[in-house]
Prior knowledge:
- The protein folds into two domains: 3-84, no CATH class; 94-246, Jelly Rolls (Sandwich).
- Helix content is 12%, strand content 36%.
- The chain has a seven-stranded mixed β-sheet with strand order 9-6-11-4-3-14-15, with helices on one face. A three-stranded antiparallel β-sheet has the order 5-12-13, with no helix packed on it.
- The longest helix is centred in the N-terminal third of the chain and has 10 residues, at 53-62.
- By secondary structure, the protein is mainly beta.
- Bound molecules: fe (ii) ion.
- Fe (ii) ion binds next to strand 10.
Amino acid sequence: MPILASEGSGIFLLKSVGWPYYRHRFSRRPWAGDSCGVIMAEIAETHPLRTSVADFVEGLRTLESDVITQAKVLEYLSQVQLAYDALASYVFWSDSYYTRNLIYRDELFEVMTLCWRAEQKTPVHTHNGQLGWMSVVQGEVLTHQYRYVRCSNPENQNVIGLDCLGGSHHVDLERLNTVACADDGKVVTVDKLQTIHQIENADKARAGCVSLHIYSKPIDSCVAFDLRSQRCGRRELRYHSKMGVLAS
Ligand SMILES: [Fe+2]
């Protein structure tokens, strides 16, 4: 079962995978049952490093037949993980910024790799009230977690379909902790309780890191914070590549 860890006033989930030997036997039909127990019962043994992207996505889609929870996806990821080799077609680099590379998307799930050159990082940002799961297949990234304290325009949170309109000219955030995530099977999450963070590849020596991200639902924009000016604003999110092809 996932290991629930609480640190500071934020909550995050870390999943240590013992690398059991599993293999997909996903059928194309919806799962007869609605629990992860059923899903796991349909997984037989071989090495997870052989999991293909197609099998990974197909297994993820089976979770769509019921309410998607953080715990269900965590349990799925504890049994079925993708290795760097399987994701090689979705690895693109830029010297200017970290890249977002779409692997799969439907109404409920968005799957992508993020590729980080040394010292590249996101701004501090929100996740639009959605759930997210991140693992690393090469290198190590740091996740700095924050908590919203107050802002000058809290009424901007009263909006449908978005976490906040943004646009505050005075935001106070409290930095809670930093979580390291390396290519050891650990999964770091974002959720409705812990929704503000910054991710960075802080290792100057490493050529690059590759992380795998799953969101439910997909996230097309977020609120980004400038901690120096204490301002925030909504930011559109773009893909560097889609399905293995550079985006125009
Ligand atoms: Fe994020």
